[in-house]
Amino acid sequence: MTATVPGSNPSHLQALMDPEGPPAIRLVGVETALLGRRILDGVTLDIPAGRITVIIGLSGAGKSVILRHMIGLTRPDRGEVLVDGVDINLLSRKGLYALRDRFGVMFQTGALFDSMTVFDNVAFPLREKTEQGEEKIRGKVEHLLGLVGLPGTGGKYPDELSGGMVRRVALARAMVMDPEIIFFDEPTTGLDPIIRNSILKLVCDTWREQPFTMVMVSHDIPEVFNWCHHLVVVRAGKIAAAGPTASVLASEDPFVQQLLTGDSAGPIRLL
Amino acid sequence: MMSVFERIGARALRGIDLLGKTGLFLVESAAQCFVRPYRPRRIVEQIHFVGVKSLFVIILTASFTGMVLAMQGVHTLKKFGSEGLLGSVVALSLIRELGPVLTALMVIGRAGSAMTAEIGILRIGGVIMALDAMAIEPRKFLVSPRLVGAVVAIPLLTVIFIVVGILGGWLVGVGLLGVNSGDYFGRMDQSVEFADIAGGLWKSLAFAVLIGWVCTWKGYNTQRGAQGVGHATTTAVVVSSVLVLVGDYILTSILL
Known about the structure:
A: six-stranded mixed sheet, four-stranded antiparallel sheet, about 25% strand
């Protein structure tokens, strides 16, 4: 993974490339402003293939916006978002949708259909996008519900589930199309520590079973350090640090250290 | 500080921008009806929601509209000794104006507001973004079936409104106020022309597109949580109701 220097010359990226192989996703000099406020300021970042990458930072730092750029839900004002070397912002809607067929996305709230049962929610992408028969769909959905620890809940509605169960259903839905890359936008926010760790472990177990590329935006410091290979620290729309978890944890950058330790004293002053 | 002209110009530009966006939204959503995979079941569900579930309120409104028309009609026509024309008055009023307009207003209140609220809740719950992220076109999934549902169901409801209204008028005019039944239907047969019926149906079709368009647009662009859903729903009802009445004037002036 490549650490970023805002405004760095993209031609230098080749030399900085992760020795593990080509990245699954690469952001080059991405700049985005919203309502006159700069959200991302020259973000250059590689997401390694087949690894769990976690993006951390203060609220409003631009973590979720980075994630949305990777999925193509937001277009940058400047810069490139490359998947397999192709800038996704140059793709037509059809091309973008073809690319997203390779993605699975789990949103913070789960984003499930309240009017559908758990089973129908998980089966939804299969029914919408494939011609698979109901029997095959049933087998796959029940397997996934078992995998996320929710066997036998297919007939329930989302409002009958706890917050943690909703997130697990959302995870099952994110995996149902056998994606190559799974994105998680704060999958454990608002959950108690035990459920939080269970979900993080579930993500890790899922990776062990099938090593997807996973990108997760998280606030779960320090728990999340136990479950990821790579760490990205975002500060005010810029990458403050990025790399293998151990190397980022060893960073001497006072901002990174303050974020990692949660110390109220340091360069970050919120009050 | 902006001058008056600058403010007017800025407002005009915003208006043109909105018109362009809403126009594109309608065209693109309508075009999604012809994109595979076709999901007829979803369209049938919407026809059922807009049509069948509005049936009771339409029949109720139509009967009382017809009855009031007959009562007022007899009272006025008596002054000229022309009670026999009651059938014509009731039928032409219902076919040309009251049928399409009142049906549209009833559907806005019952189904249009629900359309906006449903889509709005999905928007604020992040489901529309999730659909997009899953490479499922949200307009195809949420908007197109509702547009088709409205376009199919509203003209059918209008026909039902007109028929029930005429029967309601007959009940009061003939049953209570002593107008001759043969005159009621005979004069109606003489005075109602195909152009009247076609005009009424064109209007109801135009109102159906208008209702589907405004209500789905407002829902699709809902912002700011539960309060936003309430605001979007209220705005959808007010805007579509006003547009139906303004549209009625424009269409009447074209059709007459």
